[in-house]
Amino acid sequence: MALRFTGRDSLTALTYRLAEQLAVTSAEDHGNLIFSPLAIYSALSLVAAGARGSTLDELLAVLGASSRGELAENVLFVAEHALADRSKSGGPLVAFASGVWHDAGRPLEPAYKEAVVTSYKAEIRAVDFRNKVSVHIRRSSHVISCPSIDRSCQENLVYI
Question: DSSP letters of 76-137?
Answer without folding.
Answer: HHIIIIIT---GGGT--------EEEEETTSPPPHHHHHHHHHTS--EEEEE-TTT-HHHHH
